[in-house]
Specification:
Distance between the termini: 33 Å
Strand content: 35-45%
Strand order of the largest sheet: 8-9-10-5-11-12
Structural class: alpha+beta
Shape: elongated
Number of helices: 8
Helix content: 10-25%
Mean pLDDT: 89
Length: about 375
């Protein structure tokens, strides 16, 4: 099969993947580091592989780069099987967390190194290094030593070196992990700006959910070597296909129970402890099945009285924990029939531990997953 067989239609234009993984497998003893992964990455896309440590995301990236071989399946880059093509012939730029800059070289020589390995002439090398430094907005530091640069500047030099030979594909393996919060946020915005200005496909690897949301056109969530879901960030957050995706992204309350008609004609999740959570009627096809209701912490409001507004669901509880977090106040609320405690992120800090409260939320904000049917209920 070639990419011509699977082109996605974008209006009147057909877009073919620049990278394809076809049932890719990588094993280490009994461990499947990559477990039959199928993935298409589109040209000029900024795609992020997201997951916890050990989920396989960096292994996928290194397999695409050719730094490791796979034990099954295929990897195609621009419709070509790259199984027997060495890394230096794949026209890939790569930035690691360690950056791998040469400390004994100037900035110019660090960036020029891959061009010298390709035996380009001096004039062409000087021109390209200058252009690369302009791209990362460091036009006047070519003669400085690497150790004289700040962490953010070193990150930009590593980016310039990866871009200087005009790769079609740029791979980022958690390059911001060693930076402090402010520098990390600056570099994330720099990548977004860079992606808009140059013609390159970027694959980023991170365990940082916020970074993935900020940077990405689409995100692939990995767990134990498998791709759990590939979607745009908002779809992942609001419409997760699995409990793992819901719990990994943000603060979620995942409440298991039987989906059935609750009080009156309302559809509801009824927990084993007898709690009843009203949900939207769009999930009626999963009635009488065991499902998981996913309710985001920031979608819950606390009050001392119950709500009678249309479309609003509520349930009684008691505040057990209150933590001030700056922009929000984090609560854990005990609700009869639900384990564990319900997590709430609120801008209202008026509720002390021990306070009886009503928790309310727009019914349409509850997402229901039935994993037995592979996704949405």
């Amino acid at each position: 099969m070639t990419t011509k067989d699977i082109g996605a239609v974008d209006g009147a234009k057909t877009v073919y993947p620049i990278v394809r993984l076809l049932s890719a497998v990588k094993t280490y003893g009994q461990l499947n580091a990559i477990d039959h992964v199928d993935l298409d990455i589109r040209p000029r896309e900024l795609f992020t592989l997201l997951g916890p440590s050990g989920s396989g995301k960096s292994t996928v990236l290194r397999a695409i780069a050719g730094l490791i071989s796979i034990d099954g399946g295929r990897i195609l880059i621009e419709d070509q099987d790259v199984s027997n093509i060495p890394t230096f012939k794949r026209n890939i730029g790569m930035v690691f967390q360690s950056l791998a800059l040469f400390p004994h070289m100037t900035v110019f020589n660090n960036i020029a190194f891959p061009l010298k390995m390709r035996r380009l002439g001096r004039a062409e090398i000087a021109k390209r290094v200058s252009e690369a430094l302009d791209i990362v907005r460091l036009p006047r530091i070519a003669e400085r030593q690497v150790h004289e640069l700040s962490g953010g500047q070193q990150q930009r030099v590593a980016l310039a070196r990866s871009l200087v030979y005009n790769p079609n594909l740029l791979l980022l393996d958690e390059p911001f992990g060693a930076l402090d919060k402010r520098l990390r946020e600056e570099m994330q915005l720099e990548i977004v700006r860079l992606h808009k200005e140059i013609d390159v496909t970027i694959i980023n690897v991170t365990h940082d959910q916020v970074e993935a949301m900020i940077l990405s056109d689409r995100i692939g969530v990995m767990n134990e070597g498998r791709l759990e879901q590939v979607s745009a960030g908002e779809d992942l957050y609001r419409r997760p296909k699995t409990r793992f995706v819901a719990e990994f992204l943000g603060r979620s309350n995942c409440i298991d129970g039987l989906l059935q008609t609750g009080m009156g004609e309302d559809l509801a999740i009824v927990t084993p402890g007898g709690a009843v959570l009203a949900v939207d009627s769009r999930f009626a096809s999963a009635e009488n099945r065991t499902c998981t209701a996913i309710l985001r912490a920031e979608d819950i409001a606390l009050s001392t009285t119950n709500s009678e507004a249309p479309g609003i669901a509520d349930i009684a509880g008691r505040v057990d924990l209150r933590l001030f977090e700056g922009e929000t106040v984090y609560y854990e609320v005990v609700v009869d029939g639900i384990e564990p405690r319900i997590r709430v992120a609120s801008r209202d800090g008026a509720f002390a531990p021990g306070t009886d409260v009503w928790l309310s939320w727009p019914r349409e904000q509850v997402w229901v997953v039935n994993e037995a049917s592979n996704g949405q209920a």
